[in-house]
Amino acid sequence: MLSHRTTGVAVSAALVAALAGGVVGTASADAPHQHSAAAQPATPAAQPAARADAATVLAQAKTLGGLGSVLTPVTTLVHDALATPVSKDKVASDATAATAAIAAAKKDLPATPATPTAPSAPNGSAASNAPAAPSGSAAATGAVRPRAAADVQADALAALQTAIDSLSKAVAAGDAAGAVTAGTAVVTGLVNVAVATVLGGGLPQPDLPGLPTLPSLPSTPTLPTTPGL
């Protein structure tokens, strides 16, 4: 029995040594080629592309950092608002910090273009004799701009601010049950902000095995060109 174990260990050791020798041999054979490839400088065309990729990654990291700047003060507010005993002064200070963080996050959102208006027809033109658009149509009510990702993020931040205001009022009034209800709304608002930021903030799709494919929010629409009169 001992001889079989010894033989198995010896065979395993020999197999590991052979594999290691093969890897080392392959690495040694490839070393001159790798050295020569590394010695060659990057082409001028590859340098701007690398800088563009770096700028994209930095923008994505900034987006996540902005998300954290909102999550931290808001979660501190919820913790202090539901603490026992509760300090109304501390909650008021936390609410001020959370409001400032939300305002800063709104400023970082990309600007959404305004809804374009149809140009007015000159007097005496053929357009003045055109039939009126039916009531309720897009031409009669004006162009309808599709919602952009920045709109969804702005709505999420606005809803979070409303929930924070409700939580502050409940704590100031000494309404413990109302504070719990408002605190739940604040946590839900945080989830909405996080999801809107992840889906609409230009971040890469997660690649963890087992996660479902996440949808994407609509991109910011471009303004149509105005036709010549």
Would you write up a description of this structure?
With 229 residues, this protein is mostly helical. The chain is 64% helix and 0% strand. The protein has a domain at 68-110 and 149-204: Four Helix Bundle (Hemerythrin (Met), subunit A). It contains six helices and no strands. Helix 3 (88-107) packs antiparallel against helix 5 (149-172) and helix 5 (149-172) packs antiparallel against helix 6. The protein is elongated. Residues 1-32, 34-38 and 136-146 have low confidence and may be disordered.
Class computed from helices, strands and strand pairing: mainly alpha
Radius of gyration, taken over Cα atoms and rounded to an integer in Å: 30 Å
The CATH architecture assignment of the domain at 68-110 and 149-204 turns out to be Up-down Bundle
Q: Which residues form runs of ≥5 with pLDDT under 50? A: 1-32, 34-38, 136-146
Region (Disordered): 110-139, 210-229
Organism: Actinacidiphila reveromycinica
Protein name: Secreted protein
Signal peptide: 1-29
Topology:
Elements: H1 2-39, H2 46-81, H3 88-107, H4 138-141, H5 149-172, H6 176-200
Structure summarized in a few sentences:
With 229 residues, this protein is mainly alpha-helical. It is built from six helices and no strands. It is elongated.
Identify the notable features of this structure and list them briefly:
229 residues, mainly alpha, Four Helix Bundle (Hemerythrin (Met), subunit A)
